[in-house]
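Section 5.1 Outputs to date
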Amino acid sequence: MSNSTNKKVSIIITTYKGSSCIRRAIDSLLNQTYSNIEVIIVDDNPPSSIERNNTQKIMDEYQDERIKYIKHKKNLNGAAARNSGLKVATGYFVGFLDDDDYYLPTKIEMCVKALIKSPNHDAVFCGVVITDNIHILKVVESESNIDDSSIQKKLLFNVNMFGTGSNLFLRKSSVDKIGGFDVSYYRLQDLEFLVRFFENNRACYINEFLIVKARSSTNNLPQYNKLLSIKQKFYKDFTITLSKFNKDELNNFYTNEYARLLQSCLGKESLDTILKAKQDLEKYRKLTIKEKIFILLSIIGKPQYNLYTLLRYLLSSVGKPMKSFILKSKYKVNIN
């Protein structure tokens, strides 16, 4: 590889309750085709926890000078952990990797080449394969031909457009310029960061799947009221950005937001909370037939064992193998 593309890359892995899979994430970095890297592990587990102890034991196995291991004195949050990594990062480029995700071997090399080739861009994104560690559940194709003036809007309407926070690969100078991540966000850290980032920065795209995201079967979303609270904070903090929407766009934005909030509490929240989510959405539109049925199924049966949860599990179990086969065939992706 020529010197022009041999700039140092810092990859930051933040970990919390991730000792069971972090070895895979680290190994995926050490086995990259691009060697000029540093791997920064930021351990956000409480010092006296079993997870801290397990993570420490795993880190003790690595004797690689490219690895830095940072331990927080107490649990902070994902945004604070990423900032801890940024403070010690010495790379020209910086990427992030969730502890349960992993890179495919050419990921870093291709990202570096893309940004070297496109000096006017400060970020690069690629396709993502989403799995349950056995089946391919979904693929998120790389975006292309996005108008830079509309990328914020597209992101706000599709918060998962990049598939995972592990898809962040950036010029470190551009990250430093906006002050890293906002630690007041215990959720939506990536969205908050990217909306600010795209105020003045542009992105290019690699039309290949280079990241595997491993999704667990458990729903790790916070309770509805907590999620609603952090979303309302986001709406307030980005009032100016949202003011760029016309009336119909703004109504569609809030409709999508409250529809997702309703979906997040189905099958796991109390009747009062589900009814509150229903009422919040109805301020913007009527419920669909599907939503009405899901609400009914969510309140029939015991909490966590209601008909909605059972039906979702059965449909998911039956459909996974066939869907995975179709996706593998169509996109020619392999998660092994």
